[in-house]
Amino acid sequence: MKTEFILVETISQHRMRYLVEVPEGKTSWAEDTVTMEQAKEFSQKHLGDVITSSRVISKKDAIKLFKEDNDYLKNWNDEQVMRSGFTTIKELP
Questions:
Q1: Are 17 and 58 in contact (CB under 8 A)?
Q2: Which one-letter DSSP state was computed for residue 29?
Q3: pLDDT for 54-88, tens place per residue?
Q4: CB of 14 closer than 8 Å to CB of 46
Q5: How far apart are CA 51 and CA 57, in angstroms?
Q6: C-beta atoms surrounding 66 within 10 Å
Q7: pLDDT at position 3
Q8: Where are the alpha helices (DSSP H) in the chain?
Q9: CA quadruple 34, 48, 83, 86: dihedral positive or negative?
Q10: How many CB atoms lie within 10 A of CB 34?
């Protein structure tokens, strides 16, 4: 069977909640606290992935892209990259 690799790009969405105590009537202070990333996370719920694009990519280009996206793993060999980042047809249910 002839196969190909498809790179699927998504946006992962989470609903985040923060609980911030502020003086009465100062809702914007709470919003500013969250915007400045100074609030503790109250809870989160993963809402899923939205596919933004997909395209055929060669194995060589996929390995190169993996190393660019994960530059701390740039010294990995091709086998390590494929084992970690590729979903092969053999792994599909």
A1: no
A2: H
A3: 999 999 999 999 999 999 999 999 999 999 999 99
A4: yes
A5: 16
A6: 19
A7: 96
A8: 27-35, 59-69, 78-85
A9: negative
A10: 15
